[in-house]
Amino acid sequence: MQTSKITVIGSINIDLVTGSPRFPQPGETLLGTSFERFMGGKGANQAVAAARLGADVCMIGAVGDDGFGKEAIAHLRNEGIDTTHIKVLPDLPTGMANITVANGDNHIIVVSGANFGITPADIEACEAQIAASDVILSQLEIPMECVIAAAKLARKHNKPFILNPAPAQKLPTELLELVTLLTPNAYELAISLGLPEDTPAESLIRKSGSAVLMTCGKEGVMYNDENGNIHRQHGFTVEAVDTTGAGDTFNGAFAVFSSLGMEAAVRKANAAAALSVTKAGAQSGMPTLDALEAFLAKQDD
Ligand code: RIB
């Protein structure tokens, strides 16, 4: 059975996306090939991914009291997401992400704005929402103390707390001890643990002391079990147009299917992430449940 109630605590951004033949060198000016505006933010992306797959999703976060904020809330509502707990902050702009896409890959600079205006007290005010959820999902585009406040409430109410530690930063031990599952890529796990970036992936997972589901791009994922064994599961090959939001799609989908067990949930999340990269923009390619099942029905395994 799918997880029904998911609360996402995280960022809401407007993505300003420039297509380029390649990434510029420092000091270099390049002629771009396209410019588009999309809805984004790791939190909002994960919320939309989960809602498209049929979950009952509530988003906790903040936007500015500006046109972009209004647009972002209207968009999330349109995706069927409960926006009751999104604060509109008068003195900060809505979060913006400056994204360059070249050869299917991306560079992202986020200007957090209102995302960094929420406080632990705002999270604590949502205790009833957290207590009524099946899974809590968060990332690191909001203040660390808010993530910790959310993790504490999840623990208090015995709810799984999934943390996608992106963008990468060293995680306080207090937070690591509260997390049910960490979902980094290899670089993010190294930074999260304060270990050298070239530490081999398996070694990072073993040293983490946590349950880890590591995303490895088109190679799929690696994860550990309660006995310390490390498992690998392959991803699906598709023609990538824009990989922005692939990790977010994976996280949102994994949260939806987490009650199916690791192997089944990872397979569906890998498929959702693969579909997401076939269109431009973080959210455009995120599949509905029907689209996901149709894609999986065509796969050999
Ligand atoms: O993970 C992709 C997202 O990162 C983008 O939508 C951008 O807003 C940044 O938050």
TrEMBL record:
Residues that hold ATP according to the record: N185, T215, C216, G217, K218, E219, G220, G247, D248, N270
Catalytic EC class: transferase
Record's cofactor remark: Requires a divalent cation, most likely magnesium in vivo, as an electrophilic catalyst to aid phosphoryl group transfer. It is the chelate of the metal and the nucleotide that is the actual substrate.
UniProt main location, coarse: cytoplasm
GO annotations of cellular component type: cytosol
Official protein name in the record: Ribokinase
UniProt keyword annotations, A-Z: ATP-binding, Carbohydrate metabolism, Cytoplasm, Kinase, Magnesium, Metal-binding, Nucleotide-binding, Potassium, Transferase
Binding residues annotated for K(+), in chain numbering: D242, T244, S276, K279, G281
Cited PROSITE patterns: PFKB_KINASES_2 (PS00584)
The organism of origin for this protein: Neisseria zalophi
Entries under NCBIfam families matching the protein: D_ribokin_bact
Listed GO biological process terms: D-ribose catabolic process
Domain Carbohydrate kinase PfkB residue range list: 5-288
GO molecular function: ATP binding; metal ion binding; ribokinase activity
Listed InterPro entries: Carboh/pur_kinase_PfkB_CS, PfkB_dom, Ribo/fructo_kinase, Ribokinase, Ribokinase-like
Catalysis performed (reactions): D-ribose + ATP = D-ribose 5-phosphate + ADP + H(+)
Family, similarity comment: Belongs to the carbohydrate kinase pfkB family. Belongs to the carbohydrate kinase PfkB family. Ribokinase subfamily.
Activity modulation comment: Activated by a monovalent cation that binds near, but not in, the active site. The most likely occupant of the site in vivo is potassium. Ion binding induces a conformational change that may alter substrate affinity.
Active site: residue positions: D248 (proton acceptor)
Subcellular location: Cytoplasm
Reported function: Catalyzes the phosphorylation of ribose at O-5 in a reaction requiring ATP and magnesium. The resulting D-ribose-5-phosphate can then be used either for sythesis of nucleotides, histidine, and tryptophan, or as a component of the pentose phosphate pathway.
